[in-house]
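Our consortium's second objective concerns turning raw sequence data into structural hypotheses that experimental partners can test. To show how far this objective has progressed, the report includes one record in full. It was chosen at random from the queue rather than selected for favorable results. The single chain below, 131 residues long, was entered without modification.
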Amino acid sequence: MSAPSLTGFIMKRPWLKQWMIPISKWYADAAGYRKLGLRVDDLIPEESETVMLALKRLPPKEAYDRVFRLRRAFQCSLSHQLLPKDQQTKPEEDYLYLTPIIKQIEQESRERGDLDSMVVNKKKKDKPQNH
């Protein structure tokens, strides 16, 4: 899930942000997943352990809605049809619901790895010097 990203670079430069936002909106629309009723996080492959754990942490309603969206998109794909406009995902409905959980799991994993590899050195007591 952790891939190189130019997001931070672009967001820090207002002139570049203003130029890129219309392009990103056009690209998201052209990708076509919204026309099948999907959200952007529905496109994340379920093959990694991190994503599988994140899916288990989803609230039951969100998990049910995700499965419904995927099945409906699969049906649309089989019939070579798009959803009616009123059932397509609107840009304001297309939010990240799985990515924050994945990032949290990745941070927990890094923290666990850091704690597992930590070496604890006990301080030696200074012996009193006899004169």
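The partners drew two points from this record. Residues 60-79 form the longest helix (20 residues). The CA atoms of residues 120 and 126 lie 18 Å apart. Both points have been shared with the crystallography group to help prioritize constructs.
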